[in-house]
Design goal:
mainly alpha; two-stranded antiparallel ribbon; flat
């Protein structure tokens, strides 16, 4: 017989999303203080170790970091061409100057963007919006009206792609889509905006009718515990930042933004 028992949850899946959010914020704040390749590369290595400990699936991690990697590459190219001109100049054309300083700064910026964005990707790779809303409402004590409204809005975002396809089908069936591509896309985008506003108004009326946010004593359907796992993750983030900054200072590469 086939084993139909559900798989055991990974350590990452059982951590409160608020702790994941706090850990990503700690790493981002720590790494944004300096522009140097040592602290960023050290943080990347430690974040890779954290991903292994939390058993983040490699395929999902690579897929979700593809856009982050592309953004980091484009940012590094911009810094390379128009960044700080220092040291030997390797190529100069109009406003473009590629020098030792711009190359060093481009490498540091590339690693820094990856190091800041990677924790958010690996920690929230399988976090449900409902779990995050439960944590925001129960752990951070945010107003239930705001949390539930934001959750409903996030849930409706997934319908935009489906609405876009259906609008395209309907417009082609009516012969409206026979115009130019730019004009067709503009008209369809306006129709999608109208549809989203109508759906949002209907949702707001329905939530108001059901008393969402009317009473501060409203209870939550699912508890959102915050314990040792969550504290351990935040401490791990603090340790990553501390080791990265210490390594950068010890090697003489620490470059505080405020002193630039």
């Amino acid at each position: 017989m086939l084993n139909t028992a559900p798989a055991a949850p990974t350590p990452r899946a059982t951590i409160n999303p608020v702790a994941k959010l706090a850990a990503a914020l700690v790493i981002a704040v720590g790494l944004v203080l300096s522009v140097d390749w040592v602290s960023a590369s050290t943080a990347l290595v430690l974040e890779a170790v954290l991903a292994i400990v939390l058993r983040v699936p490699l395929r999902a991690l690579v897929t979700r970091t593809a856009m982050v990697g592309l953004a980091a590459i484009l940012t590094a190219i911009t810094i390379l061409l128009y960044g700080e001109s220092r040291g030997e100049v390797h190529w100069h054309f109009l406003l473009i100057t590629v020098s030792d300083g711009s190359i060093t700064l481009a490498v540091a910026t590339f690693l820094r963007v990856l190091a800041i964005a990677l924790p958010s990707v690996l920690l929230f790779v399988d976090t449900e919006p409902t779990e995050l809303a439960d944590g925001l409402g129960q752990v951070l004590r945010l107003p239930a009206r705001f949390v539930l409204g934001a959750l409903a809005g996030v849930r409706l975002v997934g319908l935009l792609g489906q609405d876009w396809r259906y609008l395209g089908y309907a417009r082609r069936a009516r012969g409206v889509a026979d115009q130019g591509s730019v004009r067709r896309a503009a008209g369809q985008a306006f129709a999608l905006l109208v549809s989203a506003i109508r759906r949002g108004s209907t949702l707001a009326t329905a939530m108001e009718a059901r008393g969402f946010g009317a009473h501060p004593t409203r209870t939550w359907a699912r508890p959102s515990p915050f314990g040792r796992r969550e504290v351990g993750l935040i401490c791990a983030a603090l340790l990553i930042v501390a080791i990265s900054i210490t390594t950068s200072v010890a090697t003489g590469h620490w470059n505080l933004i405020a002193t630039r």
